[in-house]
Structure to design on (137 residues):
């Protein structure tokens, strides 16, 4: 699968919740735009330390990560990450990568927001334009 980048918006969901009903999100809360690398081979959302610090995201333990080489490292987890792309948003946990400059968008985010990857055009788009489709068997 090819990897490509998209622009997304990240905020602290605690700020989103306290903004109250009728607030225009993300306009009414502190948020950051950043580049995210789409990688369906990755499972989770990964954020740079600088984003976590700037949005004061809450620690939520740690996890072991395995890199493309055989290395394994312990990394912090944060919770309440509000992410928006293509008019869709969700709340996720994320792995914190100290030296990373961009986000990594894995399968959990893609599934939750019902986004499809087109490697040929290097694009990410909603499966249904007006709604998130949930499949139930």
């Amino acid at each position: 699968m090819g990897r490509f980048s998209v622009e997304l918006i990240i905020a602290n969901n605690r700020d989103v919740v306290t903004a109250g009903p009728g607030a225009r999100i993300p306009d009414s809360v502190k948020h950051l735009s950043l580049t995210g690398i789409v990688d369906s081979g990755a499972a989770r959302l990964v954020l740079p330390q600088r984003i976590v610090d700037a949005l004061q995201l809450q620690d939520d333990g740690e996890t072991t990560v395995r890199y493309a080489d055989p290395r394994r490292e312990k990394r912090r987890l944060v919770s309440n990450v509000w992410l928006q792309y293509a008019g869709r948003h969700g709340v996720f946990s994320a792995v914190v990568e100290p030296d990373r400059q961009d986000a990594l968008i894995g399968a959990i985010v893609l599934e939750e927001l019902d986004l499809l990857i087109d490697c040929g055009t290097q694009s990410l788009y909603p499966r249904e334009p007006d709604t998130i489709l949930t499949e139930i068997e």
User: Anything to note?
Assistant: The chain has three helices and nine strands.
